Amino acid sequence: MTKLEHGSSGDFPLIFERSQAGRRAAQPPKPAWESLEVLLGAEHLRAAPPKLPEVSELDLVRHYTGLAHRQFSIDGNFYPLGSCTMKYNPKVNEEAAKLFTDVHPYADPDAVQGALELLHNLQHDLAEITGMDAVTLQPAAGAHGELAGILMIRALHEHNGEGAQRRVVIVPDGAHGTNPATATMVGYDVKEVLTAPNGEVDLEAFKAALGPDVAAIMLTNPNTLGLFETNILEIARLAHEVGAQLYYDGANTNAIVGRARPGDMGFDVVHLNLHKTFTTPHGGGGPGTGPVGVKAHLREFLPAPLIKRDGSRFDYDYNLPHSIGRMRSFHGNFGNLVRAYTYIRALGREGLAQISERAVLNANYLRVKMREIGFETAFDRVNMHEFVAQPPKGMKTLDVAKALLDYGMHPMTMYFPLIVKEAMMVEPTETESLETMDAFVEVLADVLRRAEADPNFLAEAPYGTPVRRLDEVKAARKPVLRYADG
Amino acid sequence: MNYLPHTSEDLERALSVIGVESIDALFADLPESLQKPELDIPEGLDEVSLLRHLRALAAKNKAPQANFLGGGLRQHFIPSVTPHLAMQSEFVTAYTPYQPEVSQGILQATFEYQTIMSELTGLPVSNASMYDGASSVAEAALLAVRHTGRRKVVVSQGVHPESRAVLATYARPLGIDIVEISLSELTTPKPETMADAACFIVQNPNFLGYLEAMPPLAEAAHAAGALFVAVCDPLTLAVLAAPGDYGADIAVGDGQTVGNPVSFGGPHFGFMVVSEPLLRQLPGRIVGETTDRDGRRAFVLTLQAREQHIRRSKAKSNICSNHQLTALMAAVNLSALGPQGLADVATKSVQNAHVLAARLAEAGLEPLTEKPFFNEFAVRTPVPATELRRALAEVGIAAAVPIPEAYGLGDVALFSATELTTEDDMTLLTGALGRILAVQGEPVLEASYD
Amino acid sequence: MNLPEALLYSPSHEWSKLDGDILTVGITDFAQDQLGDVVFVELPTVGTQVSARSAVAVVESVKTASDIYAPVSGEVTEVNSALTDAPETLNSDPYEEGWMFKLRVSGASELDKLLSAADYQKIAEAG
């Protein structure tokens, strides 16, 4: 594992602090002599240039190389973040994306047939993988896909004359925060249903929440505890019985891809996070990509355009009479669509099933290994691609997580889902070897030993990272959000 | 091809540690009817076959000999150093920087990005980025509705049509009333139009490439108690008045032009920069400066209580992922260019566009208007613009973005030039236009813009 | 747990003090301790009519945001704007300098539903 070194004393400089007037790195073509006052009019021009950094190319290289060395990443570190699916991002995906960087979305469709064909193929592949009838590739992230999906459900109810009647979206109490936030953005009220003692949706509570006012139910399956909702077929039947639509939050698709399909479970709408299951890079927070699949009855509500095939020619399909409209400009995060397509074609159908098989195998292996050294697991049963653990009594999850950083290991997701105290949500993914997970367990054991020997050890950790625990209260009380000269 | 590390011994060992007989046993919770669907997906490919397939697809795109396509996205100079630095593994394969002790790379780079966007826009508070220009326009409108408690949004038709389409998608379920102002009415918006508006959204340069007189429009918004939202292209802000200078409360836009390739429309990033009083209403991630327990300067995601993972149904937006990596590309690129480099790019683009406009006029494509334009502009086309675009594409020239019919301007196309446009490119274009137009009829003039 | 006897309490961890028809409202010592360091306070607008149990203010710590509810119906007559610049006052002095807003009570009968210090303590201890 790549450990980050605690640097020498002094702060790592900001790019602005490296700046010297008159230095420059890149040299674009020189302008001609005509003045902008004449071409544009002086009243449109700014009085003083923006204070951008002025650095040489080598300064720039040292700066960003230095910053890269102050950063954990999948390529450098084990990263078992639950719900985030931090698997290896294949390098060939990056090569594939470079083949399309100069293609312009407003070019004549006949000049971009390759790009359109790729999108058309991907629409097909994702529909096939999710068991849905049509797919939009437009949404820019998982949350954006959720918004598109719930907007379509709302449009469907309005189309059926039930818009005023259906005001409620049901989400489990363990749901990702984006689910209730999305429902609010679409103007719906949120009703939470509790989790039963076995870690699944409480079926009785769910039945009680259902009614003619329910527009949609948003579920993650397996849920955020890493457990498969064994009543899913019954849940879908009950939902449809009251005329509600069933929404699949695809954050946990890595557990089932190739082995089971949301469409077969009875879901009407599905979003996928291509940056989770389909290896497009997380990029330090994005860009993600959140395609949405729907069953046939929702097809005409999809954002336009889709990509259609007409013989051997591909074109845009704007013929969606009840479309919710555009979700974003152009055709979504195309570069990431190329990466995901490359990954799907590399794996093929057998490879897709192996993703979920090995992801579930690894997660169960790690769960058993962590229990052996004293971690509790919230539900003692076979889990899917992730599981929720708790530290031994008296220890705080935050402290254990911070101690891991010194060993070059990224912590698990902490304090989520909210329904488990001191939750540690662990997702190793299928691309990690048993040796790496064994090493992780050894590190955890070492942390526990040192914590027992020295009660202050955990509270002070980490010790050797580029910076140590931060004063987050100060950051929030008096926000400093940009560099101010002097 | 797969990316799995397990040997057959590993598989056996893992199963025995778990205490199950087979992988299938791990999926026993799934109802039988769901198990192992037959997928209509081809078999996997080795890397050579895979790249052959992708190159074959890429080869079906026609790489143009000369490119004049715009419409908000343009191919500008990206120095070699930019992708080399921004696309380092540590940035590309990092997660959201929730563990600040080991994420100072992304966090500091984002703080620098926020500073750069603040400098360009002349407004103090930038978030860490949005999805794209269109969704940032929509989020700006929602912010204004939250802040003012009003439910009407006034928007210029000079705002990119796709941005207005996304705005409509976001606004509709919330019952927000959208009022569009046509380009001909924009200079003097009626007080009754502006009354009770949460915000007034104006793009400069507008979708057709022309400059708007922003200060009086900002005044008109403020006189009605509305926020003024400037939609802008950061490249133009090297030389154009900053939104903060003319009183904009919010600046948003698409950042593609300052460091990301067009990539068939994405991913790029949207930006949002606001005035101080709107800080707590800002959607999305924000990085702030603080100190660590040893007193060192350090950076951290801050003001998180606005966000969905804490506020859930009461969050300011459902946005979770931002466009970190593409925003980083822009920050690196703008640091590489510096103020002079960016001004050179902007100036040369404007100059080339004016040469191009003159050449097109000589070739028979009349300008739509004499208003000042930046580096995109609209011309009347004697044939439908889609036909002209196709005819040019057939001879290897990418040009003539059709203006949507909704403008009511008749056959009009957008052309653009950048600092990369050469004399040869223009000669190629005018030569081709001469041949194409020689076989076409006379132009039909329609409604005017001025 | 510091719970002044003279105050009235709500199960959602607000304290209230009645003076004529004006009710002063803040959060309890227990609540500030649970929240941790308060970093931001969002206060209602003076003149707003609020109903009992409706969310009227927000208290944020680094990792949480909690709604503060009106104990009874009434009109907001005053807010403690000093908290905007010094939210830490809610931690250091929740019952005096840390008051949040004042209501002119319109639902006087609702006052009967508020809790004594002893009854609130039972709720707080039960978690």
Structure description:
The complex is a heterotrimer of chains A (486), B (450) and C (127). Chain A contains 14 helices and 13 strands. Chain A has 486 residues and is of the alpha/beta class. Chain A has a single domain, classed as Aspartate Aminotransferase, domain 2 (3-Layer(aba) Sandwich). Chain B is an alpha/beta fold and 450 residues long. Chain B has two domains: 109 residues, Alpha-Beta Complex (Aspartate Aminotransferase, domain 1); 252 residues, Type I PLP-dependent aspartate aminotransferase-like (Major domain) (Aspartate Aminotransferase, domain 2, 3-Layer(aba) Sandwich). In chain B, the strands form four sheets. Chain B has a seven-stranded mixed β-sheet, with helices on both faces. In chain B, strands 11-14-13 form a three-stranded antiparallel β-sheet, covered by helices on one side. In chain B, strand 5, helix 10 and strand 6 form a beta-alpha-beta unit. The radius of gyration of chain B is 25 Å and the shape is globular. Chain C has 127 residues and is of the alpha+beta class. Chain C has a six-stranded antiparallel β-sheet with strand order 1-2-3-9-8-5. Classes of the chains: A alpha/beta (486), B alpha/beta (450), C alpha+beta (127). At the A-B interface, helix 1, helix 2, helix 3, helix 4 and helix 5 of A face helix 1, helix 2, helix 3, helix 4 and helix 5 of B.
β-strand number of chain A: 13
H-E string of chain A: HHHHEHEHEHEHEHEEEEHEEHEEHHH
Mean pLDDT of chain C: 92
- Total number of distinct structural domains of chain C: 1
CATH architecture identity of chain A: 3-Layer(aba) Sandwich
Topology of chain C as a string of helices (H) and strands (E): EEEHEEEEEHHEH
CATH class of chain C: Mainly Beta
Low-confidence stretches of chain C: none
| CATH level-two architecture of chain C | Beta Barrel
Which oligomeric form is depicted? heterotrimer
CATH structural fold name of chain C: OB fold (Dihydrolipoamide Acetyltransferase, E2P)
- Which term fits the overall shape of chain A? globular
Helix content of chain C: 10-25%
Instruction: Count the DSSP helices of chain C.
Output: 4
Helix content of chain A: 25-40%
Give the spatial strand order of the biggest sheet of chain C. Answer: 1-2-3-9-8-5
Q: Determine Rg of chain C (CA atoms, Å).
A: 13 Å
Q: Pair with the most extensive interface?
A: A-B, 196 and 204 residues
Mean pLDDT of chain A: 95
The assigned structural class of chain C equals: alpha+beta
